[in-house]
Amino acid sequence: MAKIVMAVATVAVLLATSLAQGPLSIVEDSLPTMHTGDEFHLALHAKGGAPPYQWTAVDDLPAGIRLSADGLLSGRPVKVEDVTVRLKVADSATPPQTAEKEFHATITAALLLSWLDAPKVNNDRIDGSLKVSNGSKDTFDLTVVIVAVATDTDRATAIGYQHFPLKPGTTDLKIPFGLSMPNGSYIVHADAIAEIEAKNSILRQRLQTPRSLQVAVGP
Known about the structure:
Helices cover 9% and strands 54% of the residues. It is mostly beta strands.
């Protein structure tokens, strides 16, 4: 009997505490912009109700992002997109109070790599150019390597290389490449690796020609 009375009293205390602190709500009104490949951390906060709080995601989170039970939203986004997610918090009252809020978030490409002039064959050469952009607030230590891979031997030949700091806000910086190649069939790969030393973070982007290029010169 004493245990039952104690349990009822505990519940009453939790409920009273919850009501005294006001209704449960989520403090944050918005989520900051996220960048693909860049580590993201945001501690969510709640007020009111009876701490401690338990957090869950009502909707699927963007690929690469996770939410811990104590409210830490973190990870590395993998896809450029605009997303809408609903997050939920529950307090420790009995029964628990809950609160939900819908958030809209934008995921942008911190490092963007694309063909400016797609690789093409000119006599015995494979030529082309890339464009690279830095959509973040950090300076990248950027390395760009372009290789032509022979389809019959898998041998890779570098036909372009650049290594330089890429400043924040840089848009569509041109990187040309080209080299004379032996007769054969080639797939061209372009890899961009951006190191952010201050964050101990590395971003990567890759391009590949959709079909092989044929170099055939001479009789």
